[in-house]
Sequence to fold (394 residues):
Amino acid sequence: MHYGTEKTVCGNFMINVGITVRVADGWLGGLNYFKSLAVALNNISSKEVHVFFLTNDAAALSHLNGKTVTVKESSRVFCPSLLIRFLRKITSIDFSLWSESIENDITIFTHVQPGRYSRVPEVFWMPDFQHKYYPEFFNSQELLSRDNAIRSTAWSREILFSSASAERDFRQFYPELTDVRSHVLRFAPILDVNAIGAMSESSIREKYKLRNTFFYLPNQFWKHKNHQVVVEALSALSDDFVVVCSGETRDHRNPEYIQQLLAKVSSAGLNDRFKILGVVPREDMYALFNYAVAVINPSLFEGWSTTVEEAKYIGKRLILSDISVHREQNPADALYFPADRADQLADCMRRIVVEYDPKIEVARKSKAALAYPGAVENFALDYIDIIKSCMEKM
Fold:
């Protein structure tokens, strides 16, 4: 590990941080994560850290420019020359990041894969270890790429996670990386609290032709998100149970999955009770959260679920697959079920309807609204603390 800068963290020293953010279809959760980080950092207006978002589409992220964040388009990072790519392959040095660090006086990169030699510290972010639990959801190249990226942290000796659950998995699956320091940065989502109740219930129901009572499932239609268990649960429930789904319908790893799911829905006669809306506008998403009887996340695996965090700080009750990270997120009044047990999910859905109390709902929403600003502030402050800790180890 070599860093060409001799600067240290002290006094009024401003740490310039670089993060690479690719704008592309497919992983909305990842893009929203970086947007949330930018909003949190701009809210606190740090005098210690300034963050450069290096991106392939500055126009799409221009609204994130603020006191702490600068968005910059970088063709050298996202469209490197043949020479740069060749040199990176044979030397394990990312000369694109090296050049950006010089041009923008960047003193540390986070959320990037470390090179063998770097001008400044580079901290890798690993959202989760799904590939270790469900390798069948990945092709051989993806499995190798993930493992190589994690092992590259032996050069930087720093790695970032979104949950303690992922941190435990790292220690379990990569015991040889004992010299790598791990950091947990739990993120808070972007929420416009004032917009949550802006759309009337009648408007959202009319727009999507919704029945009186519905559950909301706002997950991308990737196979590990486990929508099929919800279809099976609905089959065991009476006709007045409806689930409304939103999210990207393409799964690049399993492109046939959405058609298989639609066939399952159709064969079960649930086309009117398992409604797939696709990607919806943000204001519609808020309304669906707000007027649903509860939110469901049946996922087989998560790093730190955006769905759970959004519902938690909107104050909506949740039904969650019983995985460790969902327990760690710990939303108020949540119910849990084994991810492969449709019968227990159906029981949870019945219980939600029976226990529904408008007064309790209002109280939970009020507590969530009070807690949300603190969560956003902690997200930013924890990130800055991690940056400072990494710089001190230079």
User: Anything to note?
Assistant: The longest helix spans residues 358-392. Confidence is low (pLDDT under 50) at residues 1-11. The chain has 17 helices and 13 strands.
